[in-house]
Specification:
The protein has one domain (about 1-325): Rossmann fold, CATH 3.40.50.720. It is α/β, with parallel strands linked by helices. Helix content is about 40%, strand content about 15%. It starts with a strand and ends in a 14-residue tail after the last helix. Helix 2 (about 60-70) crosses helix 4 (about 90-110). It is globular.
Length: about 325
């Protein structure tokens, strides 16, 4: 099979490329390296069946050519990370909405199956936890820039589902919850690599707010296994699936676990949201998925516990700078 991965030089995309090459498929990566890195795919460049193109997903001729060569498409290219979203809302909206438009239009010409990566952010301020795929989405005010990302990804979902219902383009939607693992950078506000790097260097571990907000973290190998399973399953088409873990932890507890696993003497300090992201920032108090739907379809259940995930991330950063070239095993 020939697989196109937009955003394939990113954290999740590069691991997905590892998985498909590992099972003997041909992989085409499209990435403009705006948030991805050539280091994430450097170890793949000499692999048989691997191809990469450095170009924006907005460049319709390039996208059309690559889609035409491939059997299936994973659309992962997006603006990601709270820090980037807050600082560059125009870029966030344009990248996410227009990128999906270009990919879906190209795929529709040849009816190539497309999996579109969305986000748990679309649940917004909903208090109906755990979040179900058919639950209501509760977004904050448009004056709060943080919600531009959630809104842009919700539009991607509406568009992908419309292509299926109106034009019979086979599309699959996944709402990714907090995904972590080797190759993830803290550059754009990702909490686990940020905490780990702070702990390993003896700097203060910085919590935003009081740390009572909770999240569920999933290893990238488990997420990749879910993406591959959904792409392979014919009954996944036209549906939305949560992909994540149900092991909930507060951010303060996460900081304490990182400190314990690294053996760090770093102090844990709290920074007001206003200091980190500017006035008026709103956060989600809890983010927990209901994964019954994806479990029923493909038997998905995360294999790695949070402590195992953290141990892997700590080992990765301790091995730096050679770490970016090491593929991690894919859960199967």
């Amino acid at each position: 099979m020939r697989v196109l991965i937009t955003g394939g030089a990113g954290f999740i995309g590069s691991h997905l490329a590892d998985a498909y090459l590992g099972r003997g498929d041909e992989v085409f990566v499209l990435d403009d390296l705006s948030t991805g890195s050539i280091d994430n795919i450097r170890h793949l460049r000499d692999r048989r069946g691997f191809h990469y193109t450095i170009e924006s997903v907005h460049h319709a001729p390039t996208v059309a050519e690559l889609v035409d060569q491939c059997d299936v498409v994973f659309h992962l290219a997006a603006a990601v990370g709270v820090k980037l979203i807050v600082e560059s809302p125009v870029r966030t909206i344009e990248t996410n909405v227009h990128g999906a438009e270009v990919v879906l239009a190209a795929a529709n010409k040849k009816k190539k199956k497309v999996l579109v990566a969305s986000t748990s952010e679309v649940y917004g301020l909903s208090e109906d936890v755990p979040f179900r795929e058919d639950g209501n989405l509760v977004l904050g005010a448009t004056s709060k820039g943080r919600w531009s990302y959630a809104c842009s990804k919700a539009i991607d979902e509406f568009l992908a589902l419309a292509y299926w219902r109106e034009r019979k383009l086979p599309t699959v939607l996944v709402r990714l919850f907090n995904t972590v693992g080797p190759r993830q950078t803290g550059q754009y506000g990702m909490v686990v690599p940020t905490f780990v790097k702070q702990a390993l260097t003896g700097r203060p571990i910085t919590i935003h707010g009081d740390g009572s907000q909770s999240r569920c973290f999933t290893d990238v190998s488990d997420v990749v296994a879910a993406l591959v399973g959904l792409m392979d399953h014919p009954d996944a088409v036209g549906e939305v699936y949560n992909v994540g873990s149900t092991e909930e932890v507060t951010i303060r507890q996460l900081a304490e676990r990182v400190k314990a696993i690294t053996g760090s003497a770093s102090e844990i300090v709290s920074i007001p949201y206003e200091q980190a992201y500017g006035d008026g920032f709103e956060d989600m108090p809890r983010r927990v998925p209901d994964i019954a739907k994806i479990h029923a379809l493909i038997g998905y259940s995360p294999r790695k516990s949070l402590d195992q995930i953290l141990e892997g991330v700590v080992a990765y950063f301790r091995d730096a700078p050679t770490a970016p070239t090491r593929p991690s095993p894919i859960a199967g």
